[in-house]
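Sequence only, no structure available. Ideas?
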Amino acid sequence: MKVADMHCDTISEIYEKKSAGVECGILKNNLDIDLEKMEQGDYLVQNFAIFAHMENLKGVMSLPEYAFRLADVFFTEMRKYPERIGIVKSYDDMENNWKNGRMSAMLTMEEGAICEGKPEYLRIFYELGVRMFTFTWNFPNELAYPNRRKATKTHDNSFVADTLVPETESGLTELGFSFLEEMERLGMIVDVSHLGDRGILDVISHAKKPFVASHSNARAVCGHVRNLTDEMIRGIAEKGGVMGMNFFPDFLRDGKNEGASLKTGLDAVVAHIRHMVRVGGIDCVGLGSDFDGIPVYCELTDASKMPLLEEKLRAERFTEEEIEKIFYKNVLRVYKEIL
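Reply:
I predicted one. Tokens follow.
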């Protein structure tokens, strides 16, 4: 089964390893994603994120500089293997790669603060090839607010820990709304993963085109605030958008659903997919593994293992057409419309 995966952090991992003097490239590595694993998993297209950690980069380098360094790694690595993978900026580029037996690599951005609130930076990154953009990561910025970090004492009062709670008051800023409009004008896919609750509802209310939550699951199945409420799932589906299944353990299950039906990672993934389909319909579910941004989880340890999910869905009585939509057709429909 062909695979279209809307999110991974592989480029950041390759950059950090190279910066530390460790040999690492896209062809073959010890990460979750490389070209050999992608070929084993039968990939059509993989989104590769430019991700910047705002707090870790303070006083080290500017966010735009870091983003350009990651983009350089992306272009340098992908262009080493033109017979196996091609960089895409349009849906036509993807079709051309498929016809020529190549996989596709699309550049995305995870952390809107990289643009420093400047629409001209957004346009420059579009020209560079960025075709999907999240407003935030886990920190507020000029564009929007993620879900809120709340300091709480542990049971023995020994230290204060951060917990996440829904951000229901602050969503997109005025600048964030203008970025939304500019992304839609450019033909860049709007991504609401990592946005707070209010921000996601703002996008649902104001977006004129389909958009995605590239790596977010269902909050009714697992209560983590990074997951989507049923209201959000319905809103994204009604706009023609897609949500990508994330394989991070904390987003798959929590203490309230440790029953026999969720013994393994695949069971939990299927539980989220079933719920999303029940709420939003079969056309709203896709894949957004978050590989190389998360600890590997049970059976789905890397890109080569994606056929295990196909087998599981088939065993769970999903039809061939439904599995195709989940694995790649829903995502490609959005790409074709926006790109």
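The domain at 3-338 is CATH 3.20.20.140 (TIM Barrel).
Hope that gets you unstuck.
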